[in-house]
Amino acid sequence: MDQWLTIEVFDGEHSASLWRLAQGDALTEAALTNGAEQWVWHEHRWGVVLEIEFSTEERRDAFRELPVVTAALDAVPDPTRGLLVYPGRGGGAGSRMPRTPRPLPMAGAGAVPVPVESVRMGLAEALPPMFSEVC
């Protein structure tokens, strides 16, 4: 059974695309020399995703523990919140639609009431008698 490893790198102090240019060759070389069957890079507006397929779970875990992989992951643009590593396919396997933020539920999120215009009606005044004869 195929075992996938997904590495998602988000933009931080610099672009994740620059990180890919600096670390991508070392990661793919390490993956190939450690039994990777295929790999694919995905570029998004928020960062990059690397998906690597291994034939066994042991090969996948051995790749993850390599010093070159650890060094590449330590060099991501945002080391505290800009890295996700997990087994299975992930970031690039979903739809091509961009992620849209959901509106926050709050009191001010309701519709603005439409102002009601008051209508004033009244009777017209009668014209004086001398104007009514001339017209």
Number of helices: 4
Distance between the termini: 101 Å
What's the gyration radius in Å? 33 Å
Structural class comes to alpha+beta
Backbone shape: rod-shaped
What portion of the residues fall into strands of 2 or more residues?
15-25%
Structure description:
With 135 residues, the protein is α+β, with helices and mostly antiparallel strands. Helix content is 30%, strand content 22%. The chain has four helices and four strands; from the N terminus they run βαββααβα. The chain has helices spanning 16-33, 57-64, 67-74, 129-134, and strands at residues 3-10, 36-44, 47-54, 83-87. A four-stranded antiparallel sheet has the order 2-3-1-4. A hairpin with a 2-residue loop joins strand 2 and strand 3 (47-54). The protein starts with a strand and ends with a helix. The mean pLDDT is 83.
Write the layout of secondary structure elements.
Layout: E1 3-10, H1 16-33, E2 36-44, E3 47-54, H2 57-64, H3 67-74, E4 83-87, H4 129-134
Antiparallel strand pairs: 1-3, 1-4, 2-3
Summarize the structure.
The protein is α+β, with helices and mostly antiparallel strands and 135 residues long. Helix content is 30%, strand content 22%.
Notable characteristics:
30% helix, four-stranded antiparallel beta sheet, 135 residues, 4 strands, alpha+beta
